[in-house]
């Protein structure tokens, strides 16, 4: 029986965020299992890897060209690096594992007759529906419809994102659901005094839909004026969101903290966590909220029902600030029941523990090379 030896990780743009945490957890697990890791990326934070000396890091040069996005350019520059690694790895013992910009590694892997697994986390349909640039979004969707069928395996991380992919991929049996290898442990929480604070975490962009959060908070704080809103994250919409808060005269009650290195320390005292995303894959910020036992209110975006569960979740209609405000008010008025719901959801977050999900990733790599 063939066994995976070399895993070629394609992750051109090493970014701050949930995907990077999942990637780091998987790589560390694979290194413990004595697999060789080839990491194709630009400027990764190697301090995150306790076994970093065993990672064969292939650095992509920094470069910029007008009118070409940084991520696309970085992906194009990584092609030569990917081809060079093929000379070092046997076909029967290696697989390409793409965590980002999947189309390019699919094309190169098929040209060189190599096995490739791609990870597609976001809801493909909603990501297109709510995209900033609709023309580019439809181009990406059309590319996925064509090229994803050539991948040997496709990992998705939530029920809704799996269903979305099944609607556009012809060979549906290639799609496998494996939840994020994210949590290191499930916390045992002691009772702590909570502040009149609402927390939300995410990039300040259209996808996260913080406009609805601010408008919903504006309605909510009329009934509960002592509450404040804390938003962690940075992005191109920051000025627009700040101006919205000023126009509603609630800017003194909202704090934009920006990007923070240690997000977890902000989860200790908020009474409510809110996620207003238009689409997601499997939102790690919401997993953290459940782990810290913060009553959570969310849209029914991809992954939310896997985390909160339909039975225990508090959901509001997407882009409906009135419905959000109503759910926030009910959450506070019935706080004991809200706490009961979040503790009910916490029973299921074992599905997102890093070790068992990383093991599933590695088992899937082995499954794919058996087909050679």
Task: Describe the structure concisely.
It contains 14 helices and 13 strands. By secondary structure, it is of the alpha/beta class.
The mean pLDDT is 91
CATH superfamily of the largest domain: Glycogen Phosphorylase B
Shape descriptor:
globular
Q: What is the beta-strand fraction?
A: 15-25%
Q: Please bin the fraction of helical residues.
A: 25-40%
Account of the protein in words:
The protein has 372 residues and is α/β, with parallel strands linked by helices. 39% of the residues lie in helices and 17% in strands. It is built from 14 helices and 13 strands. It is globular. The strands form two sheets. Strands 3-2-1-4-5-6-7 form a seven-stranded parallel beta sheet, with helices on both faces. The protein folds into two domains: 6-182 and 353-369, 3-Layer(aba) Sandwich (Rossmann fold); 195-351, 3-Layer(aba) Sandwich (Rossmann fold), CATH 3.40.50.
């Amino acid at each position: 029986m063939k066994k995976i030896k070399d895993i070629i990780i394609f992750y051109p743009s090493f970014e701050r965020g949930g995907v990077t945490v999942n990637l780091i957890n998987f790589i560390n697990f694979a290194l413990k299992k004595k697999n060789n890791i080839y990491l194709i990326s630009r400027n990764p934070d190697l301090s995150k890897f306790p076994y970093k000396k065993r990672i064969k890091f292939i650095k992509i040069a920094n470069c910029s060209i007008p009118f070409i996005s940084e991520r696309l350019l970085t992906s194009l520059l990584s092609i030569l690096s990917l081809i060079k690694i093929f000379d070092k790895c046997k076909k029967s013992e290696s697989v390409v594992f793409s965590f980002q910009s999947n189309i390019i590694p699919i094309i190169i892997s098929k040209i060189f007759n190599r096995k490739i697994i791609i990870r597609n986390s976001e809801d493909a349909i909603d990501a297109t529906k709510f995209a900033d640039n609709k023309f580019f979004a439809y181009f990406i969707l059309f590319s996925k419809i064509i090229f994803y069928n050539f991948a040997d395996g496709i990992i998705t991380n939530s029920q809704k994102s799996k269903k979305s992919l099944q609607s556009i991929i012809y060979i549906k049996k290639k799609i496998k659901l494996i939840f994020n290898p994210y949590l290191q442990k499930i916390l045992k929480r002691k009772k702590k005094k909570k502040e009149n604070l609402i927390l939300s975490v995410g990039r300040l962009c259209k996808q996260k839909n913080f406009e609805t959060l601010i408008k919903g908070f504006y309605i909510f704080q009329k009934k509960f004026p002592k509450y404040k809103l804390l938003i962690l994250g940075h992005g191109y919409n920051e000025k627009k969101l700040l101006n919205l808060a000023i126009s509603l005269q609630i800017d003194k009650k909202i704090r934009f903290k920006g990007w923070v290195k240690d997000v977890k320390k902000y989860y200790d005292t908020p009474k409510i966590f809110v996620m207003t995303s238009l689409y997601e894959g499997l939102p790690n910020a919401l997993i953290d909220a459940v782990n810290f036992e913060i009553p959570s209110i969310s849209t029914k975006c991809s992954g939310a029902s896997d985390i909160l569960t339909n039975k225990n979740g508090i959901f509001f209609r997407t882009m409906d600030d009135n419905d959000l405000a109503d759910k926030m008010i009910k959450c506070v008025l019935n706080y004991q029941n809200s706490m009961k719901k979040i503790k009910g959801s916490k029973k299921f977050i074992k599905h997102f523990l890093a070790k068992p999900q990383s093991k599933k990733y590695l088992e899937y790599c082995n499954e794919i090379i058996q087909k050679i």
